[in-house]
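S2.1 Query sequence (LysR family transcriptional regulator)
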Amino acid sequence: MDLDLRKLRYFAAVAEHRHFGRAAEQLFIAQPVLSRQIKAFEEELECALLVRTTRSVELTAAGKQLHEEAQRILGTVAAAVRRVHDAERGAQRLVVAFSPGLRVSAAIRAFTSRYPDVETDVVPAHWWQADAPLRDGRAQVAYLRQPFDASGLRTIPIGHEPRVACMPATHPLARREKLTSADLDGEKMITATTRPMSSIEEKFELIATGHGIALISMSAARSYSRPDLVHLPVTDAPGAETCLAVATDRRENQLLRDFLEIATATLRRA
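Output structure tokens follow.
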């Protein structure tokens, strides 16, 4: 069966917003039209993608899987179209992926000051498959946080950052200044294994609603700070390693080599 990219884009919008009305506004189509398209898509795939109620839209297990696939497929198609247009204009472009919470802007600014005519873009590297933008061609280089599948990638160590325990502000441990791993014994921990999630925002929402505690990097905690959550240092938790990564099966041109040199120096100083 051929996959209908238009319907896939419609589904991705609904999955992102978990709301037909807001998705329809984003897509500039009428809500009844969107509903019919999603229903037809489910019939073509012969599986339910969404659970609809009068107040909310939730993803089924199949819907969550398709949402992950849709983000990759639509991102790859958009990147391919962009490369075609760049080729027509004779433009040069460098696309950098980054893990949630990691800031690559200083490295890009330093690179742009040396290569002002090179266009730069950034794409998020989702925590459950951080290496995907490198493998599907959406990015030439990535600033990532371990762990991820590094097979077929060249990595350059940058540094490490501590992990903190993220919990609701009402949790009994939230009044402590710091924790150890022993303090978390018996607590329900949220991980990619125990609770598959489609975004880091979903993880924080689950934590805030009392589904459990999660160990996250300090940079992600700072970037996604919210008043109903508390982040406490865990003194004996292993730190998260950070690195630059490129695919070894693609030729490194001078621009990419120069970016790696600039980014390595810039990010290690940060």
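The first strand starts at residue 50 and ends at 52. The mean pLDDT is 88.
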